[in-house]
Specification:
The chain has helices at 40-62, 81-90, 132-140, 179-190, 219-232, 240-256, 259-264, 301-315, 322-332, 358-367; strands at residues 2-8, 17-25, 67-75, 98-104, 106-108, 118-120, 130-131, 146-152, 175-177, 192-199, 209-210, 217-218, 273-280, 341-345, 352-357, 371-382, 385-396. By secondary structure, it is of the alpha/beta class.
Length: 399
């Protein structure tokens, strides 16, 4: 079952602010005896969609309000309960920060303790379960402005995967964002306080996978991203309650009307539920981003991704002086292997649309004002140097 919890505390801090992304995605699942294809490949695609359709857009919208970016992206063998517990407990935050935790994998019912599930890492480690409620409470107790905790997993001990076909268009080009889209994101993330608790399925229900034009993923995430896209494109109001009502309606109807699901489980339903305690508040003052710390020499992939995401956000920020952007770009050059070619991907999928030498690319993004944000899709390291780099771009739109 998929769940997310939002907690907000009003702050008016004008200090530098950070948005922390903690993603734990089990991409190693080879099969579970129900669907021979397993869910690992679908979860890999879900990870790509979450970053390209949601995380990148939020980062692009909030960075010019002074938010630096800290990305902790755990997948494949790094998505372990030990890493989860250690990172959640040790995360260092300020009161003006935003923290987003996102889990995709297996889960099981937390019987008699909570409506929210236990996260079942590594497909069977029953002795190392982590309650989603513990993750949320631990992060919330750090006293940040906004905490979002999302768990995408079953809450039913006997869950099975169904197939549906929601409509969703694939973007074979780069992403564009206009002022209306960034304003909508700010309304949802900066203009409210309180708490919002959401589950993707009611008790005793399973959460289900789906096929789509974007590849295999899960039905709740697909409708969540679809409604988020409607909001940023001006087709829907930037309101959590109305967004969730639309998601609930679409998820319920797709499962109820799926011949394949109903053949396997007659009468099966999936009904997201939530508790909304949000109220409006004044938006925190925008601040100039701080020059990110850039240092290499190790082979920690997650650390490099987070560092480069923060640096690229600074380099492409319209709130930073041109010479400061160029200076930051120059600081990153020693991180890259000689002759590195940057590969620019489409928003959806892994199609390379551009190949550019790293020095030329750094010069372009630090001086060209068409960029709203650049984020790392993937990289490889060799002796502390980046020798392979894939990025996605969000460009400014005049529409």
């Amino acid at each position: 079952m998929f769940i997310f919890v939002l907690s907000f505390t009003l702050m008016t801090d004008i200090q530098a602010k950070t948005i922390h992304w903690l993603t734990f995605i089990d991409t190693t699942d080879k099969g579970n005896g129900i669907d021979n294809s397993g869910v690992g490949e679908a979860d890999k695609n879900t990870r790509r969609l979450l970053y390209s359709r949601w995380i990148d857009v939020v980062n692009a919208s909030l960075k010019d309000n002074g938010y630096n970016i800290n990305t902790i992206d755990m997948y494949d063998g790094n998505a372990t309960p030990e890493n989860c517990k250690a990172i959640v407990e040790s995360l260092d935050c300020d009161t003006s920060d935003i923290v987003v935790f996102y889990y995709v994998g297996h889960g099981t019912e937390n019987t008699g303790k909570s409506r929210f599930p236990l996260l079942l890492f590594e497909n069977g480690s029953h002795d190392r379960l982590i309650p989603l409620s513990w993750i949320h409470n631990t992060l919330k107790e750090k006293g940040v402005k906004l905490t979002i905790t999302i768990g995408m997993c079953c809450n039913d001990r006997q869950g099975a995967t169904g197939r549906t076909m929601p409509t969703f268009s694939r973007n074979y080009g780069k992403a564009f964002i206009n002022n209306g889209a960034t304003e909508a994101v700010k309304e949802m993330f900066l203009d409210c306080k309180g708490d919002l608790l959401v589950t993707s399925a009611s008790p005793t229900e399973s959460s289900r996978g789906c096929d789509s034009a974007l590849g295999e993923t899960d039905i709740f995430t697909l409708h969540f991203l679809s409604q988020f896209t409607n909001i940023t494109s001006g087709k829907a109001e930037a309101d959590w309650q109305k967004m969730l009502e639309a998601v609930k309606k679409n998820v319920y109807n797709d499962v109820k009307n799926s011949d394949e699901v109903q053949k396997k489980q007659p009468g099966a339903t999936q009904t997201p539920i939530w508790e909304n305690n949000l109220t409006s508040t004044s938006r925190p003052r925008g601040t100039k981003p701080t020059m990110p710390k850039v240092s290499g020499g190790n082979n920690d992939k997650s650390e490099y991704i987070s560092m480069l995401n923060d640096a690229f956000a600074y380099i492409t920020s319209s709130n930073v002086d041109a010479m400061e952007r160029i200076r930051c770009a120059d600081k990153t050059k020693p991180l890259f292997a000689g002759g590195l070619i940057v590969k620019v991907l489409t928003q959806d999928g892994n199609t390379v649309v551009e190949r550019i030498p790293i020095e030329k690319y750094l010069g372009r993004i630090s001086t060209n004002r068409m960029y709203q944000n650049v984020s790392v899709a993937d990289l490889e390291l060799d002796n502390g140097k980046v020798n392979s780099l894939y990025v996605r771009e969000v460009l400014k739109s005049r529409k």
